[in-house]
Design brief:
The complex is a heterodimer of chains A (172) and B (274). Chain A is mainly alpha-helical and 172 residues long. Chain A is built from six helices and no strands. Chain B is 31% helix and 30% strand. The chains are: A mainly alpha (172), B alpha+beta (274).
Chain lengths: 172, 274
């Protein structure tokens, strides 16, 4: 576990910089705003303790908040998503459960499983985030539309990134 | 307590989640102006409606207290009004002039209590002993005689009004100079009766009735009223003259108190006669 730490720190910074420097500047038609940094939470090992998961999510969200000048919003959404993760993992566990030493990746559990896993988390995160950002239910449908559009882009990126990460892991 | 900690530790995941979300939410509210504004306004809406219905209930229960407070405040404000202050000092001081001795001095005072409907009516003035008012001084208004000082306290004066059946004032007919005693019969506040005018005196309706100046209380010639009706009972040697009082006692606000500076001298001399 400890030998994975540098890798996670590296991924952490890469994702934060990607998010802050690249994806925060992508705004297709004012709706689409992918948030890819949550990939970090996706990638944490199965046996990550709950408190660590939440704290990491909080720190990650706060980092993004600091850069995008929206204190609390990303940390709120990310902590919420991290809170969902253990239950979700239990709900979509494969028949023979998660094997020790494996990671929640396409490589270990397949694209179908990973799709379910990431779509739910992305939707949860984006829904919370966008509604907090709008802070009003009167723009409900336009907010829903933004959530869906952004989720699609985030999902695409998450899958692409999976290929990179997975290769990197493989190489190691 | 131990169970409590055990509970917290058992559910540390959930509690940590709650804690972090609360912290995040606090950050959102504190550092994002839009969320903050709408949070405050929505919470104001909620708390406002709760407080509103709460106060609707408590207000009713508090009515008595509120009334008391209002009454207190009323009295406080009333005591701040200029009318509730009194002049601590009179406007003048006596200056004795050896060449031209002044016999009468006048002090103005305000009527603060008055009645006309009783058998023995009294008037209260807002000045008293400290303003130089003493017992048995005469009280007049701009229109005529009002009464005689009965009692004096430091700041107030009680006056026997003419409308008091116990008061007899020495009066005379201005034209003929016949004098008699004037008093009230306790009925109509506009009329008094002048007695002891001998039947040989010339009396006409409309004659002026003034003070005689014999009593050392009033100066001579202060108007009391006008003759309204002249009666003569059979076998009597005196008229009963109905006098319309010149002072309207229902409309009395400022009066003057007359002090006779030589009254003591006069009464001392008169007492020697007995």
């Amino acid at each position: 576990m400890i030998n994975r730490l540098p890798g996670y720190i590296f991924i952490y910074f890469i994702l934060v910089f990607l998010q802050v420097l690249v994806f925060n500047n992508i705004q297709f038609s004012g709706y689409v705003n992918p948030y890819v940094y949550i990939l970090f939470i996706f990638m944490l090992p199965f046996e990550t303790p709950g408190y660590l998961l939440l704290l990491l999510a909080f720190i990650l969200g706060l980092t993004i908040d600091i850069f995008s000048n929206t204190p609390g919003m990303h940390s709120f959404a990310t902590v919420f998503m991290a809170f969902i993760r253990p239950s979700l993992l239990r709900a979509i566990a494969p028949r023979d459960d998660y094997q020790p030493g494996t990671l929640p990746t396409i490589h270990d559990y397949g694209a179908g499983w990973y799709f379910k896993y990431s779509v739910v988390l992305i939707l949860v995160h984006h829904t919370v985030l966008f509604f907090i950002e709008v802070y009003d239910f009167s723009y409900f449908f336009s907010t829903i539309w933004r959530i869906l559009a952004s989720s699609v882009f985030t999902l695409i990126f998450v899958f692409i990134a999976q290929l990179f990460v997975f290769r990197k892991e493989k190489r190691r | 307590m131990r169970n409590f900690f055990r509970f917290i530790i058992k559910h540390h995941f959930f509690f940590l989640f709650l804690l972090l979300e609360i912290v995040s939410f606090a950050l959102i509210i504190n550092y994002n102006s839009y969320q903050r504004a709408s949070w405050i306004s929505s919470s104001n809406k909620l708390s406002g409606s709760i407080y509103n219905s709460y106060s609707n209930v408590t207000q009713y229960l508090m009515l008595q207290k509120i009334n008391e407070e209002l009454a207190k405040e009323n009295s406080y404000l009333r005591s701040q009004l200029p009318t509730s202050f009194k002049d601590s000092k009179d406007y003048f001081s006596l200056v004795y002039d050896s060449l031209n001795k002044r016999q009468y001095t006048y002090r103005n005072a305000k009527v603060i209590n008055n009645s006309t409907n009783k058998h023995f009516n009294y008037i209260t003035l807002n000045k008293g002993y400290l303003n130089g008012i003493r017992k048995e001084m005469g009280v007049i208004s701009a229109k005529g005689v009002v009464g005689i000082v009965k009692d004096v306290s430091d700041h107030y004066t009680s006056v026997i009004s003419i409308l008091n059946t116990r008061l007899h004032i020495s009066a005379k007919l201005k034209e003929s100079g016949f004098f008699g005693s004037l008093n009230w019969d306790g009925k109509d506040y506009r009329y008094a009766w002048l007695n002891e005018i001998p039947i040989h005196a010339p009396v006409d309706v409309g004659n002026l009735v003034v003070t005689s100046g014999y009593s050392s209380i009033f100066p001579e010639g202060v108007l009391i009223g006008t003759v309204e009706e002249v009666d003569k009972d059979k076998g009597e040697s005196f008229f009963r003259i109905k006098v319309k009082l010149s002072v309207d006692f229902k409309d009395l606000s400022y009066v003057e108190v007359i002090s006779n500076n030589m009254k003591e001298e006069q009464s001392k001399l008169e007492n020697n006669n007995d």
